[in-house]
Here is the input.
Amino acid sequence: MKKAAAILVAVALLASMAPAKANAGGGHGAGAFIAGIIGGAILGSALSHPYAYPAPVYAPPPRAYYPPENVWIPGRYEVRLERQWVPGYWEIERQGRHGDYDDDDGPGYRARRTWVPGHYENVEVTVWIPGHWEVRG
Here is the structure.
């Protein structure tokens, strides 16, 4: 379709350059010349690119295919930190007769109870990680 339109435009431009009556005041010399250049450019570009898309380029196949390597990872133990809830509890502090802390239950023994509120604590836990196949490549 583009070729046909370009050819029609070029023919119309060339027809406009047809010799006319000779005038003493001049003719269409410069206008016809410019029209011929434009028409030639349009016709040349339409005829030089016959295809809308370039031809496909094919690459050669790869020389060899190396599949990814499967590697066995053996099982192992890992130490991880877990947060565990420690509920609140009563703590008993023992005090001796003279204010120093004593563990004996003698006659001067005094006990003081204090409440320790519940809290989270990080605890180390040993976990078994089973063996598995892993793809490396």
